[in-house]
Model the fold of this input.
Amino acid sequence: MAPRINPSILSADFARLADEARAVQGADWLHVDVMDNHFVPNLTLGVPIVESLARATDTPLDCHLMIEDADRWAPQYVEAGAGSVTFHAEAAAAPVRLAREVRAKGARAGMALKPATPIEPYEDLLPELDMVLVMTVEPGFGGQAFLDIMLPKIRRTRQLIGKHGLDVWLQVDGGVSEETIERCAEAGADVFVAGSAVYGASDPAAAVRALRERAQR
Ligand code: DX5
Ligand code: ZN
Done:
């Protein structure tokens, strides 16, 4: 599958979100990191800002919920206009029911795994999901170093998706850069989130093109 490049607005200027969304023309999705200062030690944005962003850009929104009580909140992000909603396995009490609810409301359903959470217990849930997100840093902050120790988990996840013959996207998030993206692609990832590597660049749209080119090698 052609790689998808999803810039993370966590590294954008939050006072200029609409402009920053438009600065990454050519991106496949806009990755929106929602943090509640409980699931992770950082606080970002919530439903009203997602609603406004959805109106401000044609790029579909890929919401990554780093929040507790995902069962309660995830459906509200679909209603806010997100095209994809990813909840953390560690934060969902009933992930099957939640994924079905997200899909029934019209969005793609993703499930994220923190670095210490294995994929194997979730093998039987894969048919219920549109995407698995393998975190390649501890969630909470942009600009952290890529964890190479996650490459085996990316490989195992790709194998499990293939074993069941599923069309489940495999996203990586954290420390993805021109230097690390090829390793992720080689391990089987096909959706790449990049925050600082895109918004830290002088030309964010060019950074997206450069990442795409490297992921295709
Ligand atoms: C971290 C977030 C990431 C973050 C990635 O918890 O989930 O989406 O924005 O930022 P970089 O690409 O700078 O590691
Ligand atoms: Zn994220």
User: Anything to note?
Assistant: The pocket of zinc ion (ligand 2) is lined by residues 8, 31, 33, 64, 173, 193 (CB under 6 Å). The chain has one domain: 4-215. The helical segments are 17-22, 47-56, 70-79, 95-104, 151-163, 181-187, 196-199, 204-215.
